[in-house]
Design goal:
heterodimer; A: 1182 residues; alpha/beta; TIM Barrel; 6 domains; five-stranded mixed sheet; globular; B: 333 residues; alpha+beta; Alpha-Beta Plaits; four-stranded antiparallel sheet; 13 helices; 9 strands
Chain lengths: 1182, 333
């Protein structure tokens, strides 16, 4: 017999409902002999594309549908059966999630029309729920119609419920409106999950449904309401139910039956027989039930290619982008030509090459018919620029002259040798991709502008499913299993951010989880269930940059839901899906550095009246490059990470091109392929420049014979084989695949030989192509990146105070704010404390006039917005009301909330009003009380407007620092390590500044606040923990290799203040790091020192666990330094340490190995911010 | 140094054992003030002469007896007044009595955190700490007027006196324990209101039986619901799991199980719990008094009369066949 078709199947995209991925379902359906399978996720079509692709692979015909809650039609008053009493608001725990709405399955039947109807229904259901997430999505009755749909009324529909309640009369009444709306397309769905009683899944309800269908002359179908692919996944479904309803699993209640899996045809026939017998029919009627099901499936004909629009492209209508009279192509050509004239290229010496390049590009664009795409992007860029928002193109699009002429990209591609072919060529048939960077703070404004320009029916943001990873999985499973919340938290936080399915493997292998592994039996089924949740979507967020631009048919091709919060329209598909669906996506990335620079420029203008045009800053500024070469590049775009500072130190960039190279080299690929060392050697003249043939000299000269850019590979291949750059780009793409690499090699040798190159040249060239080909970086990207890098470094060199003001306001980069503040202090920028009479909403600069010897010295005034818990309105009110004459004046006009006023007093923002900070607190409280009561808040005054003291003890210096950390998350008045100087001196800790003079191989103690910790992928496949400490005098970069992990990893991940013993590694005049061998939690040691004295500290240091046996004797230093490659990363020759991870090493297709746990966000809670750095003194306010 | 403050280390489930332990103290002195749920103040002024030992020695005797008779360890603080004794209790460890001699009260108090002072709750402590008055020494040093501005006129004056070691309190004997408690725990996070009610029914039934057995009636009922959830931030050792407490005064003092159950249900309903993860419910009968002094409103409804008579019979059955011999149908299932 033919296979059964499941018409009602939920995948993991049904948030916290389905337990299997769509791929798994398609696979299983094929294995179990089914020809077709429907995907009907709850409230979403997000799984559609993945499902369609998986079905194509598995050879199963996909059916598309959705399972939606439906709001009952409005009834005349009188039918009070559904009215309920309002329940009392719970004092704790919140209300139950209301899932009482009846749910119905809709299947798209008539091709594109059916799909459009389905999209419309899903959109309508979500529109009602509103963007605030208050209600669950539910389809209003008014929208409940669609000619191209088949509707299944199952056990949880209103009709099914009436039948379950034994009210066929009511079922008849409820059926009427459905019949009216869908007529013949209505089906009754019988489900048997082996439950008892008459509820959903019971045999009696299934039989009643079939009987009722016969009576009402509506065709019945059989389904299994599938939630998971395989038997035995019931407990996972229970956990998902619990997570959705926000309650624990209750074994005494009805659990999942365990039957809702993708049962094969035989089992479904068995079920059909039981049901029809129970309904009082003969057994062979079962075949008719199955026949009806089959017929319903056969009607649903939606073709993924034709009807979903996969593979087709939809650009906004040309008239919307300024091409209403002429064709888009003509418009584009004339605008490009105008750009030539505007930029003066037509009058330059190379005018001819510019014109040729332009016409070539226009031909390619015309060939693909992408003209309106370019016009669309240009329109967006123009609109954004008009709003005064900084915008810059990034990505390969920067290689196109047309983009440059339209004003999309800054850099002149001819000048920098960027190729159009890397972006778009005749041979490439994928959608071109232009990304634009805008100021992050104004990104949403940009979105609104785009929506305003093209209309909500053409624009949508892209969804980004959040999937279960180990921490969330542990939290949800733990809560479902009634684990103690504190314990759940502890277990979850001990894990690094890894995949859920690796939970048990990680327990076995990661040193920092050893303690937890010891007690893992205690948690019973937890681990198994955690792993079962792996990668299931648990929520949907708006993708941070993708914007869909389409023609007016967008809403009939994709379901659009409002995002929570902003209420932007958001397509339910993720970024990969939209590409498959042929929707045009423009990536609008919010870049905080752009915001920071905009703020810095605005500050300079506000304070000095000087207008800086960053885009016109003179190139090759010596002070800027001096700053970059000094590696004090904290806060500079792209070159602030420890690895980059190291690389910059060795590379010593002197020109813009050097920056471009530097950015290109610091990528996982180049680092892994060891392109860094030969480059540095050649640059400093320690190694000869390699060039296999004079023809290639032009392509390779700039990078000393090392291939750094994609563009160079394209050039080399094009020159050697004469195949043209478009083809060469295709070849380049093939290089990363080992299989096609072999073919390309033969092809390359043949063509190059045909062009008359000798065998040795071919061989040597091929070696270069092979070694670097797949790793190079797109030069267009690098040029686009290097522009803000240079601009930010320029700002740091010339307007440091404004630069830091911008950084602190928009918080870009990888380091916590307090580290930037420490950097500012080190670079001599005066930090001015928070003051309600002077501070603005954002950080600003102020002339520090009291230093007569250096006039025009600018200081950084801290911002109100950094005060913990301040609202935008409050900050604005305080700033608007300045200046304030007295505390009372401040209280009355700025109207801060009581806690906010208290915090301001704590950090000294009210010091100008007299009295000490605690006395001010008391006055504030009384003002607050006075305001609440019947007026009469008389403030005791002493000496005019000053506030009278009340005799309370003032904050001690330590308390002040603690308050700053607590309120501002920054140690504003001094560095937090300053207070521990005595103890650090006792220990003989070397400060970061003194470390610069340390010998290579010396064993030192370093200490500081942890700033950033990473475990990046390393070529050798080892797991190396990199961390940065900040001790007030500078930064110390640390590396921990695998042999020290057992002893150190936990401490490093879970402490804020660290004391580390290690060996100095020196690789250049400005390049230095410490290889750690032992680590202690400094906060703990400080506590011990305070309470037990040095003896206690000695006892702590002597204890095992802190340090391993003899990790860092002097003999180890040089050996280790040889192991560590000159690129600052360990060389492939492994150390002696072997571990279980070795077997699980991931081998990349290109041959380099990766440690399975590398490249994770490590355990713990990220870098230390705020009060965590400080012991909480009992005297400080909460 | 004649006042002892004793805290028995009772697990929450055994709160009901307090009356017996108070009896133990009463063997030494009649002046015993119960501090429910697990503590007591005892004035040993007379006992010192009678037993010929000083208060610290007597404290050891009490500890030994409590351990021997009841298997319950206790923590004891001793001082010249109730205030000092209670403050001393905070620093005392099991097995070591913390005694504060007469002349050293001020010095002792100065080093204590403000929360050590009885009457200073979390709210007051938070206020004081916010202003840097985190130890009693600092409180004592602060001007009276400032203290009064901080916590109010009366409370400020009291705080000022107490922090300076002026102890006006005395031990007020409250002959018997004033409350009885019954607690029901759940195996897992329980959300089901039927099961909550069942637990309440069982606990109220137990209270009724115990009250009637002791010949008492209670005037008020307190319901405490403990949740699995984030622990409250205050309190020693991370605090206890969060809980909600509600009290209600009964219409008339009673030991009638049905009346207690009805009140318990009423208290429970006011919480309106839906998704709260309940780990335990506890009922406490308070304002206990002798049954013979209780009044009872008669009604014309014969049902009430019948229920009471059945209860009487059930009590007798229990007396004969054990506490589990008779129970409500819901609980028997």
């Amino acid at each position: 017999m033919a296979g059964f078709t499941h018409l009602h199947t939920a995948s993991g995209f049904s948030l916290r409902y389905g337990a299997s991925h769509p791929e798994r379902l398609a696979e299983r359906a094929s294995e179990r002999g089914m020809d077709a399978l429907a995907l009907t996720d709850r409230d979403t079509l997000a799984g559609t594309v993945r499902f369609a692709k998986a079905c194509a692979k598995a050879g199963v015909r996909p059916l598309f549908g959705a399972d939606l809650a439906v709001t009952a039609p409005e009834r005349p008053q009188g039918d009070a059966s559904v009215r309920r009493d309002r329940r009392r608001t719970p004092v704790r725990g919140g209300a139950f999630v209301d899932e009482s709405a009846p749910r119905v399955t809709f299947l798209a039947r008539d091709g594109a029309r059916g799909w459009a109807d389905l999209c419309r229904l899903v959109t309508a259901a979500h529109a009602r729920a509103g963007g605030d997430g208050a209600g669950l999505p539910s389809l209003p009755w008014a929208d409940n119609h669609g000619d191209g749909l088949t509707v299944l009324l199952g056990p949880v529909s209103d009709v099914g419920r009436a039948l379950a309640a034994g009210r066929p009369d009511r079922a008849v009444r409820l059926l009427a409106p459905w019949r009216e709306a869908y007529g013949d397309a209505l089906r009754l769905e019988a489900v048997w999950h082996g439950r008892t009683g008459t509820g959903p899944g019971s045999l009696r309800l299934a039989a009643r449904t079939v009987g009722f269908a016969a009576e009402q002359r509506i065709r019945p179908v059989l389904s299994n309401a599938v939630r998971y692919a395989d038997p035995g996944q019931g407990p996972v479904a229970d956990v998902l139910d619990a997570a959705r309803r926000l309650v624990p699993v209750d074994p005494a209640k009805e659990l999942d039956s365990g039957e809702a899996w993708l049962r094969d045809a035989g089992a479904m026939l068995g079920a059909a027989e039981r049901i029809v017998e129970a309904a009082g029919f003969r057994r062979d009627v079962a075949h008719r039930l199955l026949e009806q099901t089959r017929a319903a499936a056969a009607e649903c004909l939606v073709d993924p290619e034709d009807d979903l629009g996969m593979g087709a492209v939809h650009f906004p209508e040309p008239r919307l982008v300024g091409a209403d009279r002429r064709t888009a192509q003509r418009t584009l050509a004339s605008r490009a030509a105008a750009g030539m004239v505007l930029r003066g290229y037509d009058r330059s010496a190379k005018a001819r090459s510019y014109w040729e390049r332009m016409h070539d590009e226009l031909d390619i664009i015309a060939h693909h018919g992408f003209a309106s795409y370019f016009l669309t992007v240009a329109q967006v860029v123009d609109d954004v620029r008009e709003m005064g928002i900084r915008i810059a193109a990034r990505g390969s699009g920067a290689g196109s002259l047309v983009n440059h002429l339209l004003g999309i990209a800054h850099a002149d591609p001819l000048e920098h040798g960027l190729l159009m072919e890397r972006f778009l060529s005749r041979e490439r048939v994928v959608l071109p991709d232009i990304d634009v960077d805008v100021e992050s703070a104004r990104r949403l404004e940009v979105y609104r502008a785009i929506i305003g320009r093209f209309g909500a029916e053409r624009v949508a943001t892209v969804a980004m499913p959040e999937t279960y990873r180990v921490r969330h999985a542990i939290r949800d499973v733990g809560a479902a299993l009634s684990m103690d919340p504190a314990e759940i938290d502890r277990v979850a936080k001990s894990f690094p951010h890894i995949r859920a399915r690796d939970a048990r493997a990680a327990l076995e292998e990661l040193p920092e989880l050893q303690a937890l592994a010891g007690e893992k039996e205690r948690y019973g089924r937890l681990w198994e269930l955690v792993e079962a949740l792996d990668a299931l979507p648990r929520g949907v967020a708006m993708h941070p940059c993708g914007v869909l631009l389409s023609d007016a048919s967008l809403l009939s091709r994709t379901p659009v839901v409002p995002t929570s919060g902003e209420g932007f329209p958001m397509a339910q598909f993720d970024k990969d899906d939209v590409e498959d669906l042929g929707l045009l996506k423009l990536d609008v990335l919010g870049v905080r550095m752009q915001s920071a620079m905009a703020h810095a420029v605005a500050e300079v203008e506000r304070a000095t009246g000087e207008r800086i045009d960053l885009d016109a800053v003179e190139e090759g500024d010596p002070a800027t490059y001096r700053l970059i070469r000094s590696t004090e590049t904290l806060g500079c775009f792209q070159i602030e990470s420890p690895g980059q500072r190291d690389l910059v130190g060795r590379l010593q960039p002197a020109t813009f091109h050097d920056l471009v190279v530097d950015i290109s080299l610091f990528r996982p690929g180049p680092v892994a392929a060891d392109m860094v060392r030969p480059f540095i050697e050649a640059r400093h003249g320690r190694a000869p420049v390699r060039c296999p043939h004079p023809d290639l000299e032009e392509a390779l000269r700039d990078t000393y014979g090392v291939v750094v850019f994609h563009e160079q590979i394209i050039d080399i291949v094009a020159i050697m084989t004469g195949c043209g750059r478009g083809e060469a780009d295709r070849v380049r793409r093939g290089l990363s695949d080992p299989e096609s690499q072999g073919r390309i090699r033969v092809w390359f040798a043949q063509h190059a030989a045909a062009r008359g190159y000798d065998a040795e040249t071919i061989q040597r060239t091929w070696e270069i192509v092979e070694a670097f080909g797949s790793y190079g970086f797109c030069k267009a990207h690098a040029v686009a990146f290097a522009v803000p890098t240079y601009q930010s470094a320029w700002l740091k060199a010339h307007h440091p105070a404004a630069f830091y003001a911008g950084l602190l306001t928009h918080d870009p980069g990888m380091y916590p704010k307090r580290l930037l503040l420490a950097d500012a202090r080190r670079r001599g920028v005066p930090i001015l404390p928070l003051d309600v009479n002077r501070s603005g909403v954002a950080h600003c600069i102020e002339l520090v006039s009291d230093t007569a010897d250096s006039p025009g010295r600018w200081g950084l005034r801290l911002a109100l917005s950094d005060v913990h818990g301040i609202s935008e309105a409050e900050a604005a009110r305080i700033a608007d009301g300045q200046p304030y004459a007295s505390l009372l004046d401040f209280w009355e006009r700025a109207r801060p909330s009581r806690p906010l006023a208290g915090r301001l007093a704590q950090v000294g923002a009210l010091d100008a009003f007299g009295a000490n900070r605690r006395d001010l607190q008391l006055h504030l409280t009384e003002l607050h009380r006075g305001g609440r009561g019947a007026g009469g808040g008389q403030l005791p005054l002493a000496g005019g407007r000053k506030t009278a003291p009340a005799g309370l003890p003032d904050l001690t210096s330590a308390e002040r620092l603690s308050a700053e950390l607590g309120v501002l998350s920054m140690d504003a008045s001094r560095h937090l390590m300053d207070d521990h100087g005595d103890f650090l001196a006792e220990l003989g800790v070397v400060s970061a500044r003194r470390l610069r003079e340390a010998r290579h191989g010396e064993t030192v103690l370093v200490a500081g606040a942890k700033a950033a910790t990473q475990t990046p992928p390393i070529r050798s496949g080892k797991r190396v923990v990199f961390s940065t400490l900040d001790d007030g005098t500078g930064l110390v970069d640390l590396a921990f290799f695998e042999d020290s992990h057992d002893a150190c990893a936990h401490t490093v991940f879970h402490s804020w203040l660290l004391l580390v013993r290690g060996v100095v590694q020196r690789r250049g005049p400005r390049s230095l790091s410490v290889v750690g061998s032992a680590a202690w939690n400094l906060a703990e040691l400080l506590e011990v020192r305070r309470e037990e004295g040095l003896e206690g500290v000695a006892a702590r240091l002597a204890a095992p666990g802190g340090a391993p046996d003899a990790g860092a004797d002097d003999g180890d230093g040089p050996a280790r330094s040889r192991l560590a490659g000159s690129d600052g990363l360990p060389a492939p020759a492994g150390s002696a340490a072997r571990d279980a991870g070795e077997q699980r090493r991931l081998r990349m297709p290109t041959g380099y190995e990766m440690h399975p746990w590398a490249d994770l966000r490590p355990a713990g809670e990220g870098p230390a911010v705020g009060r965590k750095l400080w012991h909480q003194s009992p005297g400080s306010a909460g | 140094m004649t006042i002892l403050c004793v805290r028995f280390q009772l697990p929450p489930a055994r709160e009901a054992a307090l009356p017996a332990l108070l009896g133990l103290l009463e063997e030494f002195t009649p002046v015993v003030e119960a501090l429910p749920p697990d503590g007591a103040l005892a004035d040993l002024r007379g006992a010192e002469r009678y037993f010929g030992r000083d208060a610290v020695e007597l404290a050891s005797v009490i500890r030994v007896r409590a351990l021997a008779l009841h298997g319950v360890d206790c923590v004891i603080g001793a001082g010249p007044g109730p205030l000092t004794a209670r403050t001393a209790l905070r620093v005392a460890l099991p097995g070591v009595t913390c005694a504060v001699p007469e002349g050293e009260v001020r010095e002792f108090l100065a080093g204590q955190p403000v929360t050590a002072l009885p009457g200073v709750g979390t709210a007051t402590a938070r206020t004081l700490c916010e202003y840097g008055l985190d130890t009693l020494g600092r409180v004592a040093a602060a001007p009276l007027s400032t203290l009064q501005r901080l916590v109010g006129a009366k409370a400020g004056r009291e705080l000022h006196e107490k922090a300076n070691g002026v102890d006006r309190g005395r031990v007020v004997p409250n002959s018997v324990s004033r409350s009885l408690a019954a607690e029901r725990r759940f195996e897992r996070d329980e959300l089901d209101s039927d099961r909550h009610r069942r637990a309440l029914l069982s606990a109220a039934g137990e209270l009724g039986v115990r009250l009637r057995a002791a010949g008492k009636v209670c005037g008020a009922l307190t319901l405490t619901v403990r949740y699995a959830g984030p622990r409250s931030r205050t309190g020693p050792s991370g605090g206890s799991p969060a809980s909600t407490t509600r009290s209600r005064t009964l219409k008339e003092p009673t030991a009638h199980s049905a009346a207690l159950t009805g009140t318990a249900y009423g208290l429970y309903e006011t919480l309106g719990l839906q998704r709260a993860r309940v780990r335990a419910v506890a009922l406490r009968a308070e304002a206990l008094g002798p049954a013979e002094q209780a009044s009872h409103q008669l009604t014309f409804d014969p049902a009430d009369e019948k229920v009471r008579r059945i209860e009487e019979v059930a009590d007798r059955v229990r007396a004969k066949f054990g506490p589990d011999a008779v129970k409500p149908g819901t609980l028997a299932a």
